[in-house]
Structures are given as C-alpha cells and as structure tokens.
Design goal:
alpha+beta, Alpha-Beta Plaits, 2 helices
C-alpha cells in the first residue's frame, strides 16, 4: 500500500491517421466536455508530441492520486470515445508511471 502523496498516470501514444488530426482534437474536446470536465469525473489529458521519436503523435494521460483510482472506469465515456474517434488512431505503448 502506498502512503503519503503520490502521483500515478496511465499513458499511451496515439498514432493518428494522416489528415485526421483536427477531427481527433474536436472529438477529444467534445468527449472531455461531456464526460471528463466535471468534479468527480475521470480526467484525461492529451498532448501533442513535438520532438523525438513520437513527433506528431499524441500522448494521452489519465491521472490519479491513488492506485485505487484506476479501479473506476467510465464505460459510457469510453464507448463515446471509441465511436467518435476510435477509427482515427492506433493506440500503443501503454504504460503506468508513478511518482512517490
């Protein structure tokens, strides 16, 4: 069991189909406004990678302060994501990082 202040993230890279970047960004914006912007909802963040091996790809992060936070899922939000933008990208290299 972890004690004290911790930061944990699940992350994955999104390789977006050429020409679909704007559609992915708009889809992420819509999904966030409905399912991930209110207090108590699961939070996701998406960053555009601007250097290195993953240049031009996106980095999607879910942040939690406790490992048990990952026990909660958002099936409606996840289904919405998959229906809206699931066919625009490939997800890969998923990891979980922790700062203790």
């Amino acid at each position: 069991m972890m004690t004290g202040y911790t930061q944990l993230i699940n992350m994955r890279y999104l390789k977006v189909d050429r020409g679909m970047e704007t559609k992915l960004k708009e889809g992420a914006k819509n999904k966030t406004s409905i399912y991930n912007s209110k207090e108590g909802q699961i939070r996701y963040f998406i960053f555009l990678v601007s250097t290195g091996l993953h240049l031009g790809e996106y980095f999607r992060v879910r942040y939690e302060e406790e490992l048990s936070g990952f026990d909660c899922n958002d099936p409606r939000g996840n289904d919405y994501w998959n229906d809206l933008v699931g066919d625009l990208h490939i997800s890969y290299y998923a990891q979980r990082w922790g700062y203790v």
